[in-house]
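Quick illustration, no need to memorize.
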Amino acid sequence: MPQSRRQFIRNSSLLSASLMLNPSLKGLKNKKLTGIQLYSVRDDMKKDPLGTLKQIAAMGYKYVEHANYVDRKFYGYTASDFKKVLSDLGMVMPSGHTVMRPDHWDAGKKDFSDSWKYTVEDAATVGQQYVISPWLDESLRKTYDDALHYMEVFNKSGELCKKSGMKFGYHNHDFEFSVKLNDKTLYDIILNNTDPSLVAQQLDTGNLFNGGVTALEIVNKFPGRFELMHVKDEVASSDKHEKYESTILGKGIAEVKKVIDIGAKSGGTTHFIVEQEAYQGKAPIDCAKEDLAIMKEWGY
């Protein structure tokens, strides 16, 4: 749908305000970037976060995404300290994962808890552009009304993040595609009831296989809706805990390059975040290096 002049002026004003609040976003706006989700090297980060980040930087990664925020610290560092650690290594962190739980929203007060406000505050301090929740609590996906109501909380979190020049985001697993409420998949409920200007979607190109769909189906069903992607390939699971597990990019069945090319060409996807959670006997840090080399071969 063509954008009206009023919408254009409003959006331009919002962007200008956002950049004033968080100047680190200026160079990343609409820029195609390739990063790594640090969960890919979670054990290494647990043992030696600084040493692991140095290895990641030496490989050529310039963007990272966290999966560890505890007691207002990222991997044991305060927000300002972690930003400096990354800066000293020539890296930044445009996005990060922190689960937004039911107790983060007080329905009686119609406000967020202090802990969620701190999450957003620290994300802004460290230089994030997106505050991403990678999970929807099971209690919120039992009935259609419960899920629908919580999408308003998603939108309100987007409003909160916007005040600091960021966007709220959601990252899928597999249940979003296998759970149906009122004959609608949970993912349909999420995408059809969140405001794209407030709530970004980060499509995990691998997780959904265990939900019975393919990433190609989803990017074609929702063109332009995925500002971020978790770039992940899949093979048959070795431990049989789930049907599929992740692997080196290009080695599995996910047709990853087709998916990310569609995302890039749709004009929606700018952040491509490599994530690998299973390694088939290889060292995670070596997999991270291989994955980056493949992304570069693909032109990312």
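The two ends are 29 Å apart (CA to CA).
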